[in-house]
Specification:
Layout (H helix, E strand, L loop, with lengths): L1 H22 L3 H18 L4 H5 L1 H142 L5 H18 L1
Helix pairs in contact: 1-4, 4-5
């Protein structure tokens, strides 16, 4: 942009310089020309006066053509600048502007995508935390339920074992009592036989055994 402005300035100065020289000719040169015309007129008389009187018109004509040349040169330079240089500058500026706009749009899109990714991450993290908390609570509930079930099973097994032990103790007690009854009856029969000095029959033994068992049951 600075280069184009410099070129335009140089072109304008180049065009204005001939115009300034054409509009303001050298004063000393004009006076010398006037003295020369007067001297020549005095020497040669009025016959040559018309020829020298035409010199100022020639200077005006030369200045006119110089101005026309300057205008044409300005138009040519301006045309070259507007057709060859300026479009490239405009294209470069447009390209740079489009690049900046594209970079801004890309940055905005990247920022938007990053925000969406962050929101999605936070959402997934919250869901994972909720799921882990739910699983932990379910595990605790299952552990509590399992502990209660194990305790109930243990209580049932202990109750069954206690009942079985009591039954076995009761059976052993009855068996021991039965054996004790039998031994007592045998002993009583033997002693009674010796005392009575006679043989006790089987019926007598059975009767004595039944009586003894009945008495012991009533006592127990």
């Amino acid at each position: 942009m600075n280069r184009i402005a410099l070129l335009i300035t140089v072109a304008v100065l180049a065009l204005m310089t001939p115009l300034s020289f054409a509009a303001a000719p050298d004063t000393g040169h004009a006076e010398d020309a006037a003295h020369a015309v007067d001297a020549h007129a005095n020497d040669h008389g009025g016959g040559h006066g018309d020829a020298h009187a035409a010199n100022p018109l020639a200077s005006v004509d030369e200045g006119f053509w110089t101005g026309v040349t300057a205008i044409v040169l300005f138009i040519v330079v301006f045309g070259l600048l507007s057709t060859m240089v300026w479009p490239k500058i405009v294209a470069g500026l447009d390209e740079r502007n489009n690049k900046i706009v594209g970079e801004i749009a890309a940055a905005e899109q990247a920022r938007k995508q990053a925000k969406e990714a962050l929101d999605e991450y936070e959402k997934n993290l919250a869901a994972a935390r909720a799921e882990s908390q739910k699983m932990l609570e379910e595990t605790r509930a299952q552990q509590s339920q399992l502990a209660a079930q194990l305790k109930a099973n243990a209580d049932i097994e202990l109750g069954a074992m206690r009942e079985k032990a009591l039954a076995e103790i009761e059976a052993a007690k009855k068996q021991a009592l039965g054996e004790l009854y039998s031994e007592s009856v045998n002993l009583a029969t033997t002693m009674a036989g010796k005392i009575l000095q006679r043989q006790v029959t089987v019926d007598d033994q059975q009767r004595l055994m039944d009586e003894s068992i009945a008495e012991m049951k009533s006592v127990s």
